[in-house]
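Database export, one record per block. Field names are fixed; values are copied verbatim from the stored entry.
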Amino acid sequence: MGTTTADETGAATGAEATTDEEKVSVTKSADEATEAGTERAESAESAEDARADGTDAALDARDPEDDVHLAEDPAEGPSGVGQGAAAVVSAVLGLVSLTGGWIGTVAAARETLVGQLRTSSNASVATQVKEVYGDAWQTTALWAGAFALAALITGVVVIVRPAFGAPGRPQAPWIKSVAWAGVALGVIGLLLAVLKYSDALLGLPSTG
């Protein structure tokens, strides 16, 4: 009986020792897994820090002018200042063709003076009227037609300009409106100038 009790006691002691060893082994495995996870997390943080440092260094090394170029939209193209100015010039030229300008006035006065110098005092009334007034009026109509033609050409150039520029840059509505106004004034002025020059409009009075 005594021998049996000793064996049982030894077996129980051995089982308890084995259980303790397993517990210690499990605890060590858990600690090792925790340490491995911590190391992996630290490695990932180190990699992120390295990437962040590289990005900051690249931003610091970049030329400030690159930021300006990036901020600008390449599709914007020209600002349209030249087209707007040309449209205004077209409208002004059209108005001058209808109302008259100083150069047309001076040219008409010069033609009147030339007619007076070339016409003798004993010339017929019809000749005097034509030389003194008719030629001067035709000169005025000629200069008005020149201004009208310039207005027409300038307005047409402004209207068709976007077709030869940046395709992604639409023309401002006010530029197109002013250019069309210049074209319309140019057409009207040119028509009136032709009619006046040919004496179809406001021709010389009859001297018969």
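Remark 1: The radius of gyration is 49 Å.
Remark 2: Helices lie at 2-61, 64-71, 81-99, 102-118, 125-160, 173-197.
End of record.
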